[in-house]
Amino acid sequence: MPTFEITTASADDMGTLGEWAHAEGWNPGLGDGHAFFAADPCGFLIGRLDGEPVSSVSVVRYGTCFGFLGFYLTRPSLRGRGYGMRVWRAGMARLSGRTVGLDGVPAQQDNYRRSGFHAAWSNARYEGVVPVGVAPPNGVTLADARTLPFARLTAYDRRFFPEPRDSFLAQWITAPRHTALCAVRDGELVGFAVLRACREASRIGPLHADSPDVAAALVSALAAAAPDTPVAIDVPDVNPPAVRLAEQLALTPSFDTARMYAGPVPEMDRTGMFGITSLELG
Predict the structure, then answer these.
(1) CA separation for the pair 18, 97 (Å, rounded)
(2) What is the helix (H) or strand (E) element at residue 192, kind and residue range?
(3) In angstroms, what CA-CA distances link 38 with 52, 60, 65, 171?
(4) Cα–chain center distance at 2
(5) Alpha helices in 176-234 (DSSP H)
(6) What is the value of pTM for the model shown?
(7) Nearest of 146, 233, 175 to residue 30 by alpha carbon
């Protein structure tokens, strides 16, 4: 009989998860694995059949009260045999007692509801070539996020995320082929965004901003790092100005997910959420 076991992922396994996500059309970043792994090295579970990876789930812990579930995948040829459900149960056990978030594709949302998740909003991935040269509003300057005191950056990010995620952010802003920018007014942060290279459209996330014009300037400046190539932003419909901005930039919706939670919906500054960080880690 074949042997099935669940283990934590190795650093090398993160490459496999990226390939599986790419095969599903999720367009993960080329360097996502290192930053993801740093967020919670024990938060990635692999189901192995006779030693070979066949299913996965990520269950990354943030702080003491929150977790995010992603990378829920089973190799297509082995679906329907329970290998995915077994890693799902192991993952949810790891997050027991916490509010759990996920971004669910339409085909899985009913399954997530049966597991106790409820939809809080929808994310639409908007893609296209962004015009460069959009100036920031008066009094706002853009700066490389790596040059700012890290504590200021994490404090700003905390407005838009349920718990601190310092280890993840430290990797996210410094990873190869990542460009991270902040918007500053009178010495205070009013925006933060990161662009990362992907196999297809480069992804922008997070995209936090105190106003649409600040968000537009950040997107335009990041697009200049990859001129004439498409970018993609996962835009939450819970912030209507973010949707309007994506449309004003002539971006086209291409992919939908639902942000779902098991447990109370966390308090966050939704008015400043113009693009979520990632489908995998929130």
Answers:
(1) 28
(2) strand 188-196
(3) 24, 10, 19, 7
(4) 35
(5) 212-223
(6) 0.94
(7) 175
